[in-house]
Amino acid sequence: MKIIVAIKQVPERDAQVRIDAAAKWIEASDLQYALNESDAYALEEALQLKEKHGGEVIVVTAGPERVGQTIREALAKGADRGIHIDCDDLESRDALGVARLLAAAVKPENADLLLTGLQSEDLGQGQTGVILAELLDLPHASLILHVEKTDTGLTVKRELEEGWFQTIELPTPAVLTIQSGGNKLRYATLMGIKRAKTKEVRRANAAELAVDAAPVAVLERVSLPQKQKSTQILPGSPKEAATALVEKLKFEVRVL
Amino acid sequence: MSGILVVQEAGRNRISFEALAAGRVLAELTGLPLETAAVGDPNSTVFVETSGQPPVVAHAVQHPLLEKYTSDGYVLAFEQLIRKLEPSFIVFPHTYQSRDYVPRLATRFGQVLIGDITGIEAGPTFVRQLFQGKMTGSYRHPGDGPCFLSIQAGAFRADPPQAGTFTILPFEPEIPASAIRTKPGVPFRGSAQTVDLGSAQLIVSVGRGIKEADNLPLVQDLATALGAELAASRPICDSGWLPLERQVGSSGQTVSPKLYLAVGISGAIQHLVGMKGSQCIVAINKDPDAPIFEVADYGIVGDLFEVVPALTEAVKAAKQ
Fold first, then answer.
1. Structural domain for B209, as ranges
2. So what's the ipTM on this one?
């Protein structure tokens, strides 16, 4: 099975993101970055499928020089090779623009299966995989927790809302977007990190892929969210704050 | 039709009403007429139930191959309806179903879904969350062609349905059986639900801030002292630290207790939709900018490993 996993580098979960001077995006300098969480689950699913059925796992991402680090991390966990689409204007492209880049870069690979995480932690649009399926004219299933290879294709477990699930059968090649929690994530071993250094990372240039970069949906302004409620912050030491909260719970919320 | 088409989802009445409410906001801003569509038999109650306030024109999209949801079937059906009606805006409820097919449908028109929006402002400008709720983004759709939108649960106030007449127009798309590539199974419940968080009056909920499974007793002690049910955000259940049936959020249970005490939960939207209807929300978090404080009534900014034991003691003392 030849499996492509589209991954994304995003600001680390606890990173203090600040709005940039033009209020168009965030301050990209001195941010720590990490592999997007549901993409880590997509990679894990791919690696497990390869361990069961053999084949190859290829990771692909688009972004500036720094995303190379995230590709190396994926290679260290066990991916066989990487594709890095050099792109310095990723944030000005919309989901369709990014999916076009990925589609152009992976199409010649003729993979059996393409995986993405369900959604990114920065933009949270949750569309890349589904759009990729349309651009490549492949069937897809989204919010997948478990993948089983069958004689004719795949049987997958899809998460529905409020604790419900569904099984879907689909032929390959196909695109799946992977929900977090389906597997236990592995860590890179020292040997893996060492091996990753010698694995191939093919560079593709966004301009040479010749896809339409103009966004249909334009992010015009980034701002801080407006509070929905006025939160009363209880100050003081942990003990003082706890005592103040118990007072509130007793006399105002009346649950004690 | 150069108007607004609100696509509703049978069986998801509340959020379908909310999408309709968003459609009305857009209609007022743009002066465009509003129509609705849903998959279903025109004689079925889905239109009465989901279309809300008349007078409206509702399009009943029907085909035997749409009885079970598949993205291939829905994309094909709505592609044909949209080509026929040529609406300027198409508004969907943001559900697991719309997330599955609308990005694909929009791509067919060279468009991109502006998804999970929480507000519509003059322009029109569409507001959605970024960075797990830490930031807000304002989007415009400057070009020609239909603008695809989906509405976050709870973001628009759903008007209760009113009696009255409205016109239902049947629409029968052409769907060859070969176009449906996936074979969906019947939905099933994950595990026997032994915990009904939905009826709990008091909930103590724990998130990523707890760091390790070994630290959970700290929060369990607080829940026990309060007489509360213990719940969790998704990452805790993903890691297997607590069973899935204790998960609150879009993929878990929706709760509205008298008290929801969130410990070490940052407040990503997938969690907030499951608990923001709580009567009183208390948040304990080390990050003063955590989105959970946007919905909290009371907050303590601090290290949960210090605050929670102090709180447990204070609750015990108050109960004596």
1. 197-319
2. 0.92
